[in-house]
Amino acid sequence: MKRISVICLIAIMITSSIGLSACGEAIKERNKPVGNLVGVIYTESESKDTRILVYDDQGNEIDTTKYKMASVGRFGFGSVQCRKGVMYEIANGYASAKNAGIVMCYDLSTGRIDEIKFGRSGMTDLKVTDKYLYVLSNINNNTFIDRYCFDTKEIKTFTLEGGVSTEFTVSENDKVYYIDLDYSLFSVDIDQKVNKEICKLESPSDYMFANDDNVYLSMSYGTSEMLVVNGVNGKTRSIDLNISESGMPYYQDGYLYVSSADPTQFSDSQEIVKLDLKDEKVVDKWDFNHGIMKYALIKDMLYTVDWDNNMLRIYDVSKKTASKPFLKCEVDMTDKKGDCFLSGMGIAKCGSDEMDKRIVPIEEPSKPDNEVSDTIEESKSDTEEIDSIEYDPAMSSIPGYPIIAFWDEETNRDNKVKLKCSQGEFIKWDRKTGKTHGLGKTHTYRPDEDIYWSPLVDQSFKDSTTIIATSIKGGR
To answer: Measured by CB atoms within 10 angstroms of the end CB, which terminus of the chain is less buried, N or C?
Structure first.
């Protein structure tokens, strides 16, 4: 990661007034669906433009829901988690609109969006079971696994101090497994605070899936084999899936579906196999004459989105000619997605009475800069430019560049400093928990606060930023 130049300016401010406004999209009447529901998430990385397109099994458009949040999803590196008709996905946000630690919850049956706030930055992955929502986060060489209980709303945290993991999985009966950067596989008991090493892998894994005590791993590129590790004794075995390469897994009713699609590769033809987990035998296989970026299933209905991010295809895999499944319909979503790119896809059985109602009420996200009315009257004064400072996030043990102000507390105990940056954002950091809280591009600083500036929320960040610190009521 390149170093970043930070330029600090000091000015004088007399008055400042800030007004906030918020807007949201009301739930509207929907078209009546035929068959199941499929939701496709498109998002933008630099603006609050996320869209969830909902279709039925006939390709009929049911609804388009807009969510005012940027960078929703993990893009090629994970699948939307879907339970009881609700899609769960990480909402990263962008710049001053960033909300550290949000999971978006989208009810496919109603179009309602709720949020679960973990208050954790560096969220990289999530898993959902019937009881819990799990989130994996990384900050300052520590990994946090947070477990949110749907019934009690309680969050329990397991911390891997001095250990880093970006890949984990959770079985249906809530057994947690992760892989560290040395390719060691571990099991975690969050309640008992137990972290147990199972075995050392010979190479990195691309995808993980856990079925009780067995962990299924799609290994490094170019192999059709899936590695299976016993989570109790660490013994391993391999399954040859007889596809071009082992890729993304999808579980349904005792079967593990594995595609040859790897989200870092582009292919014009791909495959999906159906693996019976009872005897670990491949019982079916389908060939496709297009690439597959995302896919999901309900019974015999298969939904895919291609690498161009535009085409939704709906198949009936119970019917096929040779090795190709029956294509029921396809939908070109080009005009609907706008400038957004594909993030994920989730599905729900239409008319199901199992829609999940155990989500916390929605919390209002902090407002981005273009929703803030900031009127400032400035007096004529000198502005001092301080020498540029280099800051390298990759070499820092703290979450950002520290902001520190000094003044005479006896005579200026009520002093405040208005901070403003051109790129990045200001954050608060709790050193004990590792949690950060985004403050946006402007913040009124007080002497007892632990404030930092971070460039990590701006994906389009350039070489330098300007930070303006303005004293209110005098002082320095």
So the answer is: N
